[in-house]
Amino acid sequence: MRCGREGRLSAGRRYLCPAAAITAVSSWRSPANIDGPRNSGFTSDFVQNSNASSCLAVFHGGRWNRGAPVEKVFAMSSWATVAQIAATFGAAIGGGSLGLGFYSFRSSRRHAYVSEFRATLARIRTTCERLTAHVTYELANELVMTAVYAKDFDLFFSDIYRPFRKKSNKEFRDYVRKYLSSSRITVAVHTQLTQMYERILSDLEPAAARYQTDFPGVYRVTRTATKVLGKIPRAYKELVRDEEVWEEVLAEMQRGSQEIDNVDRLRSEFSTRLIKELGQDVENTYRGCLDIMEVLTIVIDAHMAAPDRRLMKESKHERGMKMKPFGESSVSAELYEDLWALTRLLESAKTAETNPLLDYHKRVAQFEERHSN
Asked: Can you tell me the distance from the alpha carbon of 288 to that of 366, in angstroms, rounded to the nearest whole number?
């Protein structure tokens, strides 16, 4: 493009008068003649170069500017644009790096929390398995032998031996009842096995209590299992020190007393009969513990198998559930109440081979049936 009204300086630089700007703007089309943005808001730079002459129009701040040299405008426009682009990319990269760093930090914290939670669940399961292994005849046998062979009962067996041999069954029963009513069975039965059992049990609930807020479903099932396992030594001790049980066993022994010819034999036979008397209760208690252990294992396995992100969503779901407080219902009712918070996770853990939700219901029903009889 040519403009007849061009000015010149001694350095030979060309300037564009305002009258030629309109023509320059309307003719600025070809990319080959452009060395800058076509339009950038309120500032437009138009440059056209030819062998004969140059035309330049600068529109800035809402008016045309005269006397702007081509080289200066070109340099200003190019470097300003580059600086703006670099700043934009730098801000974007900085923001992305900050976001990525925060995401990595959050992911690492979540992974560490979930890993610790899973390790705690593994310890809880191992502890319950150790406790269940002690709920056998060995525990009942140790309690019975401790009570029967306590020094407090040396005089008791010496006193009842003669009536045991001489009196009728009814007279002997009345004699034992009167004797035991005057001196209650208060012997201590803290054995080495019961102390170890109680020590292991004391570590169980505190481990689960750390996640009472985040995973109330897991905590409630663990606490229910702890309550069931904690009742076993107390129940055995009560049976061992039950005067009616002693009276019944001694009266049954007295019917076939021909083979019992001394106090030691009487004491030994009584301890054996007393262990057998507790046998049925030990069997039911052991199977009930297995049912509770299976319920706890189902819950733990479902939480262990869930991915980290899913586990955190499950935590939010469990926290949002409102359940009845402890101590207001039976063990089976508490387990059914705990299921409100665990149903969604157990349903998601269903596979072609296993159905955790159905297995949970079956185990609770079996426990309820055993303890209702």
From this structure: 8
Q: What is the mean pLDDT of residues 209-233?
A: 86
Distance in angstroms (rounded) separating the CA atoms of residues 270 and 274: 6
Distance in angstroms (rounded) separating the CA atoms of residues 347 and 365: 19
Q: Mean of the per-residue pLDDT values for the chain?
A: 75
CB-based contact 166:184 (threshold 8 Å):
no
The C-alpha atoms of residue 142 and residue 16 are separated, in whole angstroms, by: 113
Taking 50 as the threshold, does the pLDDT of residue 297 lie above it?
Answer: yes
Residue-wise over 198-212: b if at least 16 C-beta within 10 A, else e?
eebbeebbebbeebe
pTM: 0.64
CA distance 292 to 305: 20
Distances (CA, A) of 35 to 52, 56, 75: 18, 12, 10
Q: Cα separation of 312 and 119, whole Å?
A: 16
Share of the chain above pLDDT 70, in %: 73
* The predicted structure's pLDDT at residue 298: 92
